[in-house]
TrEMBL record:
Organism: marine metagenome
Gene3D superfamilies: 2.40.10.120
A Pfam family this chain is assigned to: Trypsin_2
Any one GO molecular function term: serine-type endopeptidase activity
Span of the signal peptide: none
Protein name: Uncharacterized protein
A single BP term in Gene Ontology: proteolysis
Amino acid sequence: MKKFLYLFLVLILTLFIGIKVNSYFKSIETKINLLASSVVNETNSLNTVKSSDENTFQNLNFQKPDFVEVAKRTIDNVVHVKNSTNISNDFSLEDLIFGRRQQRPLIGTGSGVIISPDGYIITNLHVVKNADKIEITTNSNQTFDAELVGSDDQNDIALLKINSNEVLSYATFGDSDSTQIGEWVLAVGNPFNLNSTVTAGIISAKSRNLDPSGRTTQSYIQTDAAVNPGNSGGALVNTKG
């Protein structure tokens, strides 16, 4: 009888251990399956993100501005401005002994923008201020004498006029209020009569007031496009030209 009870207990214990072992291995198998499923889901998620990033990058590439076309539409509208100012010095003892020397005019240069087909040009006033003679050279190397029509000293603006037998290529004014910080722009000038130069950048800030006294109202656009010496009076254009 004791032997029978002993065998019965051993059988029950063996059955219990077998059930526990089987349950343990099934639990491990379930965890492995869940882990594998998680890895697959993560891989699919990464592939989806990668695909989304590639599509976004392609869209960004597609939206890049075409600087070539903008430059082509703009460079013929920008001119070289040369001013000559005659300087008369006081009569000196050296002039009395050696004779009066011929006075050389003071030369200044800058850029300007044709704003009408009949030859009106806008530039900075400091480019032509006090000039006795103003000369304009177009991007096609045509030269014209220019007349100062009007100026605004406070805003450093001057309006010039040349007479040409041809209808001139000209730029149109944009709406500065609609510009956005971060928008692509081109700075176009004609420094040193070397034909037009173009540099690219973005609008860094708007409504800049450069008057520290605050007595005048100024609203300038700031750009990080490189501006070369002689570019004063040139054009700042958006991607539409």
